[in-house]
Amino acid sequence: MAANAKTQKRPGAQAPQKRPRRAVIEGVQPEIDCGRFPAKRVAGDLVAIEADIFTDGHDALAAVLRYRAPGDDDWQETPFQPLVNDRWRATFRPAELGQWHYTIQAWVDDVRTWRRDFEKRAAAGVVEAIDLQIGSELIQAAAGRASGPESEQLRRWADDLRGNLPLAERTVAALDPEMAALAERFPDRSQATDYGKELTLVVDRERARYSSWYELFPRSTGEHGQHGTFRSVEKRLPYIAGMGFDVLYLPPIHPIGASHRKGRNNALVAEPGEPGSPWAIGGEAGGHRAINPELGTVDDLRHLIQAAAGYGVELALDIAFQASPNHPYVQEHPTWFRRRPDGTIQYAENPPKKYEDIYPFEFASGEWRELWQELLGVVHYWIEQGVRIFRVDNPHTKPFAFWQWLIDALKAEHPEVIFLSEAFTRPKVMYRLAKLGFDQSYTYFAWRNAKWELIEYFTELTRTEVVEYFRPNLWPNTPDILTEQLQTGLRPVFLMRLILAATLSASYGIYGPAFELLEHQPRTPGSEEYLNSEKYQIRQWDLTRPESIADFIGLVNRIRRDNPALQANRSLRFHPIDNDQLIAYSKVSADGRNVVLTIVNLDPHYPESGWIDLDLSALGLRPDQSFSVVDLLTGEQFFWHGAHNFVMLNPQVLPAHVLAVRTQARDERDFEYYL
Amino acid sequence: MAANAKTQKRPGAQAPQKRPRRAVIEGVQPEIDCGRFPAKRVAGDLVAIEADIFTDGHDALAAVLRYRAPGDDDWQETPFQPLVNDRWRATFRPAELGQWHYTIQAWVDDVRTWRRDFEKRAAAGVVEAIDLQIGSELIQAAAGRASGPESEQLRRWADDLRGNLPLAERTVAALDPEMAALAERFPDRSQATDYGKELTLVVDRERARYSSWYELFPRSTGEHGQHGTFRSVEKRLPYIAGMGFDVLYLPPIHPIGASHRKGRNNALVAEPGEPGSPWAIGGEAGGHRAINPELGTVDDLRHLIQAAAGYGVELALDIAFQASPNHPYVQEHPTWFRRRPDGTIQYAENPPKKYEDIYPFEFASGEWRELWQELLGVVHYWIEQGVRIFRVDNPHTKPFAFWQWLIDALKAEHPEVIFLSEAFTRPKVMYRLAKLGFDQSYTYFAWRNAKWELIEYFTELTRTEVVEYFRPNLWPNTPDILTEQLQTGLRPVFLMRLILAATLSASYGIYGPAFELLEHQPRTPGSEEYLNSEKYQIRQWDLTRPESIADFIGLVNRIRRDNPALQANRSLRFHPIDNDQLIAYSKVSADGRNVVLTIVNLDPHYPESGWIDLDLSALGLRPDQSFSVVDLLTGEQFFWHGAHNFVMLNPQVLPAHVLAVRTQARDERDFEYYL
Question: What ipTM score was computed for the predicted complex, to two decimals?
C-alpha cells in the first residue's frame, strides 16, 4: 500500500518535552494578516476582541484578554465572556493615543468545572460525600494561591466542605456563589495557554475617524488678480468653517520649478508669468522645507494654523515626494535620482507619456538611507510648524517599507498625526498602504455610481476585515477628478454625490470652490480634467454665484456633527428598496440612541418612488413598534409602522431624505436648521 | 494636540539596516491558521496555490512557487501566472504521499519592466537610442547571471541593441520574444522577497478523499446463534463488495470487560452470557493489542484483511482509547488513570450520568509520556498487522496535542494510513481535529434534514476554507444514531438519505445490515438508540428480507465509481428550485468532462414538482446549448434547453434523479445498470 510513499523515518516518536497545554485559542479578531499589521480605533472606543476558545472534553474554561497601553510594560487583564459556539468576547476602552498591544490567555479551570458538575449533581439529588471532598481539595488549592484574609476565607470554606456537617448543609455551602467567585479569582494558571502573539491596536484621535475636508488652492484666494497668500486664505476661513468643514487641505505650498514648467490647461510649455503646477516642487527659493514666497512666510503659515484653529479647522498639507529639475536636491544629492546611461536624470514616465517637469526619487539608490532620513525630516519640519494632518500624494509609487518606517517613526513621537493616502490605484495596493499605517485613504467612490456598485463597494469597506484598518475618505471631486456625472453640471447630481459622500462615510471631502459652485466643464470631452484647472493657473472664484450650494453643504455638515451615527462606518447597513434608482442605508451610533436612515435618488432627472423593506433590527426597532422619521434636511416628519414603507424623491426638489429614526423610547433631539 | 498622548520617544529614527524588499506577497491560499496547519490533497491532484503579489509603482513582477517533496531538501520551482487584480496562481501535481512544503518568492523584474515599456514606446513610435541602451545594459546583466552558450547568446543580443544598426532594426531586435524569454530565465533575484513561511500540504492516497464505508458488528455474522468470527465476516465479503463498498469498518475487536458489563438495551447489569459493549475494552484476555478470543486470532484477522483486499475492500479498525475496569493497564499502570480522594479510579461521567464500565485515561498524569508512547504503540501494532484505516472513537475527549503528535508520528512512517474522526461535538472542535491531522471526519449530516439546513451546511463544508482540511464522511445512521426520520421506517426516507450521503460527499458510510434492512425501531420513543442495539447484544440478520435495499445501494455505489464528479467535493454547487421539498446540486469532475446533477425530493410522502433554475456555467454549459440529462438510476433521458426546466419526483417510485449531464461535445459514457 505504501508503494509510492517514500519512507520518512522519524527519530523514534518521543512524546513532547513539555506537557502540551489543553486550551486552544484561535480565530482571534481583529488580527490583520496573522498579526503583521495593527487594527485601528480611536480614543474612547469600546474595543471588542473576540476569539474561539475551547478545549478537549467537557472541562470548563476561563480566559483573559491581556492588554497594555503605549509605553507600558505591564499587562492589564479583563475576563473573556462566552458568546455562543465557543466564541468569546472581551472589551476594553483605550484612552491614550498610540500603539496598544493585546494578547489572550486561557486555561482549563478545575474549580469552574467542578462547580458546574456539582450543580448538576445537586439538581439531580445525587451528591455524594466524595464530590464535596473533591471540591474541598480544589478550594484548598485556591487558598494556597491566595494570600491574607482571602486565603483564610477560602481555607474556611474548604474545611466546611469536608467537615462534619450533614451532607445537605455542606451541599448548600458548596453552592455558595461567593465561594465560587472568590476561588475563581485565584485560578491555577500554571498550565494556561498563551496565544503566543502580541497583536497591535493603533489608537488615533477622533478626527482620524470623523472628518470633513475642504481642499483649495491658496494662490486662488487673492483678489483683483493678485496671487493668493496664507493671509488671503485666512479671510476665507469664516466661509469654510461656515460650511462646517474641519480640515482645510492645501496642495503643495513649496517653490515651483521653472524647467519644463507646465502652462495653463497642461500646456507643455508655460507662458512667461504662469505659475506652474504646485506638485513640481523645488526652485530657487528652496525645496520641501521652503514656502513659495508668493504665498508668504513660515510665520504666515503658523498664523494661518492658529487662525484656523480658532474656527475649529485644522490645516492639512500635501506631502509629494518628488522634485522639479530645479529642486536643490538635484545639485546637492545627485545620487538620490536615477541616472540614465547618458548621465541624464530619469524623469517621470508612463510610457509613452513623459513628465519631464518631475524627477522621481530613487528610493533604492546606494544612498537610500540618507534620502529616507531627509524625507522623514521634511515631515518632521512641518510638524514642528504645527501641522498635524498630511495628505500624501501618490504614496503607491514609493516603497511600502518606506511609508511604514516613516509613519511609525513620526507617530511614535506624535501619535496625533493623521496621514491621508492619495492612491487611486489597485485595491490591494490601497489596502496595503492602509495596513502599513495610513490613517485615512482615498477610495473608488468617485466612480461608483450605480446602486449595485455602491452597495458592493461599501459592503466590502464596512462589513469585511477591511473595516479594521481602512478608513475611507470620500471625494466627489478633486483637482484631478471631474467625473462624467458631475460634467452634466446638474444641481441634483452635486447634491446627491455630496449626500452620498457625507453619509456613507464618516470622512469625506470636496475640492472647492469648484464643487460648491457646480464647476463642470472638462478640458476635453471624455477627460476627467477640469477646463482651466487650478493645477496650472490661478482662478479667482465668485463665491456669491447664485448656483452655489454652500448653504446646503453647511446643513449637511451640521447634520453630521449632530448625529453621532454618521461619525463612524461600522454600523452601515443597506436596506432593500424595489427601485434600482433608489438606495437606502442606515447608520446607528455606538450607544444605539442615534439612528439615521438615508435614502437617495440616484437619477438626477426624474422623480422616483418605491417601497423600502427596512431591516428593523438594524435600526434597533421591534417588528411591532411604531416610529417616526424626521427628514433632517427639511424637517418633514413621517409616521411609519413596520418594515414596509413608501418613499418618493423628486430630484428637482431634493434628491435625498436624511431621516432621523425616532421612537418614544429614544431621547429625542430637536434640530432647527431645516432648508 | 498631543495632550492625552504619552510621548513615546524612539531612539532616533534610523533607516532600516537592510534595504527592504519591494515585492509584497500576501493572501496566500491555501494557508490554514497562518500556516500552523497543512492543507490536504490526494496524490495526482493538480494543486493550485494563489497569492496576492504586487509592488509599489508600476514595475513588472515575476514570482515562483517553490515546493518540495516529503524528505527532499531541495526546492523545485514553477512560475506564477497573473490572474486579475494582482492575484497570481501557480500549480503543481504531487505524486508522493506525505508532507510537502511550499513557499513563494517574488521580485521586481527589470527586464520585464523594460520590455513592457519598450513595446509601448515602439507601438507609439517614440523609441529613442537611449531606450535601447538601457535594454542592452539589462540584457548584458542577464548574460552575466547566465553561463555557457546562453550567456554568449544574451551578450550578442546586448551588443546588437547598442550596435551600429539603424534604430528601426535595433527596435525589431529588442522586441524578439526569444531574447525576452531567455533573459527572463536569468533574473536578478538578489532583491527578491521570500514569503517567509514554509507551508505544508499533506498528500494522501485517493481513498482519503473518496471512500464508501460499511460498518458491521463481526459478532453478528455467525449463523444459528453462534458468535460471529473473522471467518464468518469473510463469508459476508461478497455481499459487502457486491453493494460496492470499499471500506469495511469493525467496532472494537478487543476483549470486553466483565465489571459493570452492560446488558441488552443498555441494562446496567448484564445477564450471564451477554457479550457486553465492544467499547468496554480490556479483560482477562488482554487489552488494546489483544483480540476477543470469540472473534478469532490475529492470524484470522490477517486472513480477513487479505480476503477483503481480494474484493477491493479495506478493513478499518476502531481506536477507542479507554479501558474497562478489567483492562490490564488498570493493574500494570495505575497512574494512567485519575484517582479520586478515596483512592478509587474516576470512571466516565456526564453528570449526573455515570458510566462505571469505562475508565478514561488520564492524559495529564505524571506518567503521561509513557501513556502516550504506549497508545502510539497500540496503533502501530495494528498497522503491523496490515490495517491502514482507523476510525477513532471520541477523539475530542483526549488532548488535541496528543492526536497531532500520534498522527504525525504514524504518518511520517506510513503516510498511507487514514484516520476517521468520530466527533459529533461542537463545530470548532471537529474542525480542529481535522486541522491537526484526521483525514476524514464525521459530520452533522444525520441531523440536517431541511433543504436550507443542507444547503447552509454543505456550502460551509465545500465553499469556505473548511474544504482545505475537513473531509466529510456522511453517515445516515450509526449504531448510536437512528434518526427520527429513519424511525418512520419509510423506504423513501432510507433511499433519500442514502442518495444525499452518497452524492453530497465523496465519502460516506452506512451501519449495516441495519440500514439496508430498514431497521427502524428505537429503544424508547424520542431516543436515537436502536431497539435491541448490537452495541449490547448479538443480532443475526436475515439479509434476504424483501424490504432490503442492498441492490439499490449497489447501484448508487456503481454510479459513484463510474462518475469522477462524485468522488470529490470542491465542485459542489446548489441550484435554485422553486419548491422547498426539492433540493438540486451538481458536481463536476476535475477535467470538466463528467457532470452529475442530483435532485432529491425531501418529502417521503408526496410527489413534488418544481422548476429548476440551473447555474449553467457551473455545469460547463453555454446559455444557448442544448443538452440531455440521463437518469443514472433509471436510464430515463430528458432533453433540456437553457436554465429553466421542470422536475417532478414521486417518492413512491424513486425520491431522486441522479442525472448525467451530456452534450455532444462531451465524450459520452454508456451505463447499463439502470433499475
Answer: 0.94
With contact defined as beta carbons under 8 Å apart, do A59 and B360 qualify? no
CA B63 to chain A, closest CA, distance in angstroms equals 17
Radius of gyration of chain B (CA): 31
Q: Is the pLDDT of residue A667 over 80?
A: no
Which residue do the cell numbers 505544508 mark?
A: B200
The average pLDDT across A66-87 equals: 97
Testing the interface with B: which of A56, A338, A418, A465 to mutate, by most B Cβ within 10 A?
A56
- DSSP assignment of A221-279 equals G-STTPPP-HHHHHHHHHHHHHTT--EEEE---S-B--TT--BGGGBSSPPTT----TT
Residue A11: pLDDT over 50: no
Cβ–Cβ gap B133/A341 under 8 Å: yes
* Angstrom distance (rounded) from CA A295 to CA A253: 7
Phi, psi at A85, each rounded to 5°: 55, 45
Residues 6+ apart with CB under 8 A from B519: B482, B513, B530
Whether pTM > 0.80 for this model: the answer is yes
A4, A95, A413 member nearest B7 (Cβ): A413
Q: For residue B102, which amino acid is it?
A: Y
Across A93-210, the runs of DSSP E, i.e. the strands, are 98-108, 193-194, 199-204
Helix (H, G, I), strand (E, B) or coil at B103: strand
Q: Which three cell numbers stand for residue B300?
A: 484470522
- Which chain B residue is nearest to residue A387, measuring alpha carbons? B1
A97 to B5: CB separation less than 8 angstroms, yes or no: yes
Distance, in Å, from the CA atom of A183 to the CA atom of A178, rounded to the nearest integer, reads 8
Of A48-62, A228-242, A513-527, A617-631, give the lowest mean pLDDT range: A617-631
Q: How confident is residue A18, by pLDDT bands cut at 50, 70 and 90?
A: confident
C-alpha cell at A513: 470652490
Looking at the DSSP assignment, which residues form a beta bridge with residue A440? A420
Residue B544: name the closest of B499, B513, B511, B498 by CA.
Answer: B513
Q: What's the pLDDT at A206? A: 98
Given a contact cutoff of 8 angstroms between Cβ atoms, the answer to whether B133 and B113 are in contact is no
- If you average pLDDT over every residue of chain A, what do you get? 95
CA distance B306 to B308: 5
Tens digit of each residue's pLDDT (9 = 90 or more) over A268-296: 999 999 999 999 999 999 999 999 999 99
- Across residues A639-665, what is the average pLDDT? 92
> From the CB of residue B276, how many other CB atoms can be counted at a distance below 10 Å?
23
Please name which of A476, A486, A479, A472 lies closest in space to residue A443, comparing C-alpha atoms.
Answer: A472
Which three three-digit cell numbers place residue A431? 489596502
DSSP per-residue letters across B102-163: EEEEEEE-HHHHHHHHHHHHHHHT---HHHHHHHHHHHHHHHHHS-HHHHHHHHHHHHHHHS
Distance CA A564, CA A542 (A): 34
Please list the residues that pair with B26 across neighbouring strands.
B52
For residue A283, give the nearest of A229, A330, A335 by alpha carbon: A330
Provide mean pLDDT across the span B110-125.
96
Task: Say which residue the cell 491658496 belongs to.
Answer: A218
Q: Are strands A626-631 and A637-641 parallel, antiparallel or unpaired?
A: antiparallel
Q: Is the peptide bond before A513 cis (omega within 30 degrees of 0)?
A: yes
Question: What integer pLDDT is reported at residue B571 of this predicted model?
Answer: 97
Does B432 reach chain A within 8 Å, measured CB to CB? Answer: yes
